[in-house]
Design goal:
CATH topology: Deoxyribonuclease I, Chain A
CATH class: Alpha Beta
Oligomer: single chain
CATH superfamily: Endonuclease/exonuclease/phosphatase
Number of domains: 1
């Protein structure tokens, strides 16, 4: 072997080690915020690892992290010609591909989508069904609260719909799913909700009833030892935080205050709560608002270090 060959081999090994170190640090720290449009919301801290028992995901440009998301995608009926609230915004056929791009850019593995109306559901299934699993699996039921998962990394164990009181107390279907990570066999539960806002009067009492239903469901799902993520558009900031954290859940945006109870400063109506694992800090991506993809931000959390119950 020539001296030049030996030198080249040494240099190659050094570069490989350095590159591997950079990848390892990226996984441990969850490095990068995905651009100026994302901001950390909640307490700052040190590096956060994928929890014991779970492995970094393969899919997406930010492969190496496990990311859960909540995204109110703005219903098809609201935009484009004839839209009832934003007729000057692009139609859903233009917005949905950008929504998927945002999930990819954030390396989302599992997500709860709100306001995914049937036309959007059908387009997601037809154009992106090879990459994303979707529940509900049929549009014969309400699809507005849909759960999606990256097929390369997750498989569906079971999923159900459940009702909460919506406008005027009329029942509206929400969704929960149990998903298994392919590489480890570990499971997590995702509950996806959209509580009613004040339309033609106050719906505060129905939001309060919805929170009680959601709290009980999360507590029941957690009894098997798997972590539970409750995500959604709560259409309120303070009550969800106070009701759910008093029940032992963690707000991914931070602790807030306790005397009196108050939510974290940067929390909005789109929130993520967990039971059985502390995930966060929550990240808020507002790029989609400026690009007219949705009038809500994409909220994401990455699974942190620590022991996930067996």
């Amino acid at each position: 072997m020539s001296r030049r060959t030996r030198v080249a081999g040494v240099l190659g090994a050094v570069l490989l080690l350095l590159g591997g170190g950079a990848v390892l640090l990226d996984v441990v720290r969850g490095a990068g915020t995905g651009g100026d449009d994302r901001r950390d919301a909640g307490p700052r801290g040190g590096g956060r690892e994928v929890p014991a028992g779970f492995r970094p995901e393969r899919g997406g440009p930010r492969a190496g992290v496990v990311t859960v998301a909540s995204f109110n995608v703005l219903g098809a009926d609201h935009t484009g010609p004839g839209g009832d609230s934003k007729p000057d915004w692009p139609e859903y056929t233009e917005r949905l591909p950008e929504m998927v791009d945002m999930l990819d850019e954030a390396s989302v593995g599992v997500a709860g989508l709100q306001e995914l109306q049937k036309r959007q559901w059908a387009l997601l299934r037809s154009d992106h069904g090879d990459t994303w699993g979707v529940f509900p699996r049929t549009d014969t039921v309400v699809t507005a609260n849909t759960i999606v998962w990256r097929r390369a990394d997750w498989t569906l164990v079971r999923a159900r719909q459940f009702d909460i009181p919506y406008f005027g107390g009329v029942p509206q279907a929400q969704a929960w799913a149990t998903l298994r990570q392919r590489s480890t066999g570990r499971t997590l539960h995702l509950v996806n909700v959209h509580n009613p806002y004040d339309l033609n009067g106050s719906n505060e009492r129905y939001r309060a009833r919805a929170l009680r239903i959601e709290r009980r469901l999360v507590q029941r799902l957690a009894t098997d030892g798997s972590p539970v993520f409750l995500v959604g558009d709560f259409n309120e900031i303070t009550d969800p935080h106070c009701v759910l954290t008093r029940a032992g859940m963690t707000n991914a945006f931070g602790d807030g205050g306790s005397s009196p109870c108050r939510p974290p400063r940067r929390a909005g109506i789109d929130q993520v709560f967990t039971l059985g694992v502390d995930a966060g800090p929550a990240r808020v991506d507002t790029a989609g608002i400026r690009r007219q993809v949705s009038d809500h931000p994409l909220v994401t959390v990455r699974l942190p270090g620590g022991r996930v119950p067996d």
